[in-house]
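DM from R.C. (forwarded with permission)

"hey, sorry to bug you on a friday — could you get me a structure for this? deadline for the figure draft is monday and I only need the backbone to look sensible"
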Amino acid sequence: MKVPEAAILFETLFPALHRACHACRPPTGGERQARLLDHLDPLAPSYPGALARHMGVSAASVTLAVDRLVARGLALRERSPGDGRKVGVRLTVAGALLRDSRSGLDPDRVRTLLRRLSPRRRRRALRGLRILARAAGLQVTPPSPGMPEGGPEPPPAAV
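My reply, with the result:
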């Protein structure tokens, strides 16, 4: 894998790990909305009750923060296809862009770090990060029944 491809993959995987490593402390006001953005995904819906438990805040606080994110066009609500009573929350493109703009990653430093690794070690390091990112995603969205701990193994050629 070449450095530019590896850097793009690294920059894609690292935010999930970064978000999962934040300490859970009760935030206030706009800070709560910003933290909530860090826990939402544009593809897989998260559910307010699980988010509240994970973030250490009340369900009402999460609902209020979600209301504000939806009003700003940063998140959207959708009914669960399996249970119409459950309403999940996903990031919109605007929400994902705002979340990702706050990552603090310096692309030049990422590329410098990756250049220090041989192509073989770079592949192994990114495979490890992919596994960690999958596991980090499980902290907000529990695995489906039958899914192995840490998510499915990536195919060998995918790294």
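R.C.: lifesaver. The helical segments are 3-20, 29-39, 48-55, 59-71, 93-101, 107-115, 119-137.
me: no worries. Residues 20-28, 140-159 have pLDDT under 50 and may be disordered.
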